[in-house]
Amino acid sequence: MKMNFATANRPEAIDSQNWQSWHWQLRNSLKSLQEFSQWFKLTAGEEQAFQQGAELFNIRSTPYYASLARAQELDPIRRILMPHAQELSKGSQGLFDPLGERKNNPTPRVIHRYPDRVLFLITDICSVYCRFCTRKHFTGAEQAFIRESEYQNALAYIRSKPGVREVILSGGDPLTLSDQQLDRVLTDLRKIEHIEIIRIGTRMPVVCPMRITEGLVKIIRKHNPVFLMTHFNHPREITIEAKMAVEMFVDHGIPVMNQMVLLNGVNNHPAIVQALSRRLLFLRVKPYYMFQCDPSEGSDHLRTSIEDSLAIQKELWGTLSGLAMPNLSVDIPNGGGKVALVPDFLIEASKEKRTYKGWDGVTADYINPCANQIFKPIDASEYEAEWRTTQLAKESNPDLTNQLLRIPTKERLHSEAQSR
Ligand code: SF4
């Protein structure tokens, strides 16, 4: 099928040069009831949300992103950007800090949850405040870029952890920073020898694609390897403008991956997920994660059940190319980390074999080889020192150490066989 992409509906009253300027888009963001009313006929629930706005997460949308929403109250894009009175109720779980980031926050603006990577929250500003946001407790709170003292302390922390190999720039949206600010951050990170990979998590290609300029992409490219993590949630977000933005990254050798969130009434249907994933893949963007929505305060109306998500994924399995298939995962609340959710095709298991029934009904056994023939690669020790540096980043993990010691080598298997 030929992929068609539409352009955003710029209102005639807005000059095209202004519309194409990301500074104009940010300066003219919709924030108040009056501003939103110029674009949408607000429902009673939406008006109530604005009236009790002080109790809500920040509200903001670029005119560009607002132009993608349709008039119906239940339009998927409207649900992402429009506050609603339903947010005023905490919800069934309603967590202030669903990912337990405050427990893993060794210095302001740094989240260190996994041994080999850190999140660096360089700004709390976003150009759109998505109603499902996980980090509501932080995002849009101060509406500010990182303070100099916090910035220096964060760099010092990352410098002091040789096991950290990857820094994920997040926030807020790092691409709300100016080119100069971003270049400075990337330059400072590249001075840290043990940092191998930098990721930039951003919604700007989705909500303000005019931010992606040749100049910005060239700055990022100087600091390769840098991965761009986008957050497209619905196929209608992939406009011609967004297409050009992500293609500019890919054409400059910057890999782009997408993390979507399964959202109630937005994309919780296999037809929507496949349409999004196929379009992204066509643009050379790898659909990477499909997250279960985190139970942050006031997000119940946007969450799906895990059963609903698994059913969607099961329908996609086998029919959607593996390249287009995002990994369905849930973040265990309170900082438990990610868990992959995969359809269960197992019928029965024993020590010798497992029996599976595949996505289209084929049933077969997988029979294990003899256990005493299995050994680990004889050159594993050459890589163990490198592996162990990861563990230095956090306190040592005794379970992992034990696993390493338990690796059977060919020599050990041989001497055990001889001693039998
Ligand atoms: S862009 Fe990301 S951080 Fe900002 S509000 Fe949306 S989901 Fe939250």
Give structural notes:
This protein has helices at 16-19, 22-27, 33-37, 44-51, 63-68, 76-81, 148-159, 179-190, 204-207, 214-222, 240-251, 270-282, 306-316, 381-392, 398-405, 410-419; strands at residues 110-114, 117-121, 166-170, 197-202, 226-230, 256-262, 285-292, 327-332, 337-340, 346-349, 353-357, 363-367. With 420 residues, the chain is of the alpha/beta class. The protein folds into 3 domains: 16-88, no CATH class; 101-340, Aldolase class I (TIM Barrel), CATH 3.20.20; 373-419, no CATH class. The protein has a 9-stranded mixed beta sheet with strand order 1-2-3-4-5-6-7-8-9. Strands 10-11-12 form a 3-stranded antiparallel beta sheet, with no helix packed on it. Strand 6, helix 12 (270-282) and strand 7 form a beta-alpha-beta unit. Helix 8 (179-190) packs parallel to helix 10.
What is the topological layout?
Layout: H1 16-19, H2 22-27, H3 33-37, H4 44-51, H5 63-68, H6 76-81, E1 110-114, E2 117-121, H7 148-159, E3 166-170, H8 179-190, E4 197-202, H9 204-207, H10 214-222, E5 226-230, H11 240-251, E6 256-262, H12 270-282, E7 285-292, H13 306-316, E8 327-332, E9 337-340, E10 346-349, E11 353-357, E12 363-367, H14 381-392, H15 398-405, H16 410-419
The structure holds iron/sulfur cluster.
